[in-house]
Structure formats: structure tokens, C-alpha cells
Task: structure prediction
Amino acid sequence: IFFFFFKQKTAYEISACLVGSEMCIRDRYLEGARWDSNLHTLAPSRPKELYTDVPLLHLVPEVNRVPPTTGIYNCPLYKVLSRAGTLSTTGHSTNFVMFVELKSEDNEDKWIKAGVAMFLALRY
Result:
């Protein structure tokens, strides 16, 4: 089983060191929170900011990784804003992509109640 975690780096740093099955994801948006680039953690949204950009994610597969139980928020990543999709024959939503572990100083319940989610596109 592979689990992915991300490292925040610049695009230049990442492109120079991509190896094997590592990958990068760009152009994602957060709703309900923002990414604090100074503290490298999830933070509350600023007033009147509905969606915020997420920095480039460097996904690194790691075999048999034990996911952390504290200090993270498993943020759902969706294709589009609707958060709803149809169930495919495998039983998975056609809109849901994966969970992304975001570092957080706050309890995960805070972000769940706020409805924090990440999106690949803000419009169709």
C-alpha cells in the first residue's frame, strides 16, 4: 500500500529532484481555510476570502507508511466545487480524488466543522 505525503518546496527545487513515482500537483484551491506559507500549516481564512491558492504539492510515495494521528488534517481533494459526484461501479465518487494530509496546529474537528476542502477547479 502506498501513502502520499507532501513537502512544500519551490517548483525549481522539485523539478530538479523528481525520482521514480514521485509527482507534483499544482493549481489547487482551498475553501474554508488557507495555507500559511510562513508557518507551513493550515490557518483560518482571511475575511472575504472564499478560496485560496495552495502551493505546489510534491507527492512522495512511501511503502507501508504509518500515517500520523495528530498534527494533521486529512483534507478531501475534489475535482469540482459541487463536492458531489455519482457513484461509479467500484463504489467511489467520480468527484472525490484523494485525501491530502495538511499540517495543522488545531484539532481536525475544527476543519471538519468549517467544511475545509481542496479543489482542482473552481468552475467547469
Remarks:
- Strands lie at 2-7, 23-25, 28-31, 34-36, 41-43, 51-54, 57-63, 72-78, 96-103, 117-119.
